[in-house]
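User: structure tokens for this one?
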Amino acid sequence: MAYIATHQGRTTRVKVSEPRPGIFTVTLGDKDYEVDFLEPQPNILSLLIGGRSFEVDVDAAPTSDVFEVYIKGDHYEVEMIEEKKKKLAMKMSKGVTGRQDVKSPMAGNVRSVLVQPGDRVAAGQVLLILEAMKMQNEIKSAIEGIVASVTAREGVAVAAGDPLCVVEPWEPQFPVG
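Assistant:
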């Protein structure tokens, strides 16, 4: 899985794979690291990187992309966004118009559906929560509109590209006469 990490205004591409259980290959930019990973307590990570041991305390709100990281008393605030999600957000910020067929940006499970057909939604409003790799991802509306249909169902697995819902542009109705 690929991510975009931002810390103090610096952005780095991070790629993570798990070739063996508990052993991860982490690529930061163009450099690979083998990381032996263990989570002895919730939010406490024990990492072995290049023969050096690190105890890392990581905390984040359930649907947040911002992580509070503590290593040896030093505090770091890191935003970690899945690369596909970041690209989608950038695409959405370019001024999307027209009917929106909202599709799943990744494989995962639909955690919760927050809208139903007929609901009026604002641009940027969360439509549903998709859980992938133990991360909860907010799927948002790109436009102000009316939810025309919802195909996503809570607890159901979806693949990347599966339809989730349709949002039609909202046209204000002005009285005639």
